[in-house]
């Protein structure tokens, strides 16, 4: 791994060296380093690109890192990863993709992630997306996340687009069974001419399934964002969806949430807001000695934290 | 007018007798009584069914009643009404449609209403829908409301579906210019096998245009409701959209609001909630001596007020 690889891995997965525990590092469409542990097995798929990650029942306090980096232009990388989180396990999965596109033709990574969180298991999943590069070649990321949570299971999806991604179309679909809970936090920054679309569908199937979806975004320059978060309740269940966007410059933001109740004991709530940075916040920080640009940056960082 | 006519007019327009001021009463597809005043002219359209309502600039404190009643089955009534509210006027328009369908074939009324609220004018518009009848003939109401509000104008749309409407598809479109304000309050009760769909689109075009959309609904039995409130901001503007639904029995409710900002100074907020009647409220009223059914009815009436 060279300095550029390390820089990308640090940005998307907070990795300063080869991680502890199970990991799979993919670079320019190929696995370059892999490690399984006694409790977490990673094995390449035989029928298509990608890996199976199998976490033994009862595994606790372990992590899996599966970052992807791309440093070539003209690459269209599609990968299928399947996660089986065994009963009663409690693990952290760190994914993410960093693209450094040096040229004029596009670099694209589409990660299709399929999760099953088995009975009573817990998973925290962190996925960060980042793009950079000297040329005008587009950096494109179209992640698909499909998650099924069995009885009493819990999952947290932390989905972050740091910056530099020219085009993204995010698909997230979840099915929750009895007493399952899903927390989705999405944070996204777009700038330049970037385009971002996020579709989230959470189906609350089992009794007392519940979900919280929190989406925060900042749209700068001429960028465009569209959000379609949807929650459908089929049973006694609860959901809270919250979308907040800061709009700047000539950006456009559309938020089209849906809540649908197909059961009299479904309790679904949605809130959305689009607006600019609050003037009072700017003035307060500037009165403490920050320039307007510094104050703006501080507020945006806080909002996307 | 017979007793049935009076009953329908009282239900939809609070009319106990022929109203004061300007009015047009339509029954079973024909105007049966009309009155213009010095300031408000009502004249039948020449090219299609319907009337033009012209309110002179500066007219204040006057009202127009244009109720529609249907007491025959097998009628499909379409009417085009055009409202011109002159500069600086301040008037109340009471519309609404009541259907008593005595038979087995459907009775349908589609009122297409087109408003221009001129510079600085104010209008309060009240439209109530109601259906009843001995037979199984459907009562169908598909209103279309198109409203343009000029600089500094103000309009309030109070759109109420009382009960008994088997199928409704509501279309409401508004364009707001500089400093214009629109308040929409929609209240809807569905029961039985009824179906209700409401599409609202408010475009905030002029600087400092603002809107508030409040939708409240109760879905009972096997009824289905779908709401698509949309607000699009093209300028410095403000919007607040609030949809609350009470779901009961085997009903289904979908709420799909959209806020879209195409300007950095657009401030748009949306809130939606679907849930059942709060248990504490029921218990409190029952502890005061009401039966459960009475307590439920009291809460629903309050919610839809």
From TrEMBL, chains A, B:
Pfam families: SUFBD_core (PF01458). InterPro entries: Fe-S_cluster_assembly_SufBD (IPR055346), SUF_FeS_clus_asmbl_SufBD_core (IPR000825), SUF_FeS_clus_asmbl_SufBD_sf (IPR037284). Signal peptide: none annotated. It comes from the Bacteria. GO terms for biological process: iron-sulfur cluster assembly. Residues 83-303 form the SUF system FeS cluster assembly SufBD core domain. Belongs to the iron-sulfur cluster assembly SufBD family. PANTHER family: FES CLUSTER ASSEMBLY PROTEIN SUF, UPF0051 PROTEIN ABCI8, CHLOROPLASTIC-RELATED. This is SufBD protein.
């Amino acid at each position: 791994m060279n300095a550029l690889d390390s820089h990308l891995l640090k940005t998307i997965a907070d990795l300063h060296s080869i991680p502890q525990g199970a990991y799979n590092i993919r670079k320019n469409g190929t696995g370059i380093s892999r490690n399984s542990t006694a409790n977490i097995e990673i094995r390449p798929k035989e029928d298509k690109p990608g890996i199976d990650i199998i976490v033994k029942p009862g595994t606790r306090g372990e992590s899996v890192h599966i970052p992807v980096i791309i440093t070539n232009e003209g690459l269209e990388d599609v990968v299928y990863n399947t996660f089986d989180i065994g009963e009663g396990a409690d693990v952290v999965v760190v994914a993410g993709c960093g693209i450094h596109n040096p040229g004029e033709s596009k670099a694209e990574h589409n990660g299709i992630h399929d999760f099953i969180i088995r009975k009573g298991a817990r998973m925290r999943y962190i996925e960060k997306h980042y793009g950079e590069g000297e040329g005008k070649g587009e950096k494109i990321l179209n992640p698909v996340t499909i998650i099924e949570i069995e009885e009493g299971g819990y999952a947290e999806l932390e989905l972050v687009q740091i910056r530099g991604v020219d085009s993204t179309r995010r698909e997230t679909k979840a099915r929750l069974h009895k007493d399952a809970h899903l927390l989705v936090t999405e944070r996204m920054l777009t700038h330049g001419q970037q385009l971002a679309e996020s579709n989230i569908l959470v189906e609350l199937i089992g009794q007392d399934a519940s979900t919280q979806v929190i989406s925060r975004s900042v749209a700068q320059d001429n960028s465009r964002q569209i959000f379609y978060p949807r929650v459908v309740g089929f049973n006694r269940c609860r959901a809270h969806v919250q979308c907040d966007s800061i709009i700047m410059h000539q950006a456009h933001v559309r938020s089209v949430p849906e809540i649908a109740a197909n059961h009299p004991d479904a309790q679904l709530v949605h809130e959305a807001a689009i607006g600019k940075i609050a003037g009072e916040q700017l003035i307060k920080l500037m009165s403490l000695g920050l320039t307007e640009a510094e104050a703006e940056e501080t507020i945006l960082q806080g909002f996307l934290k």
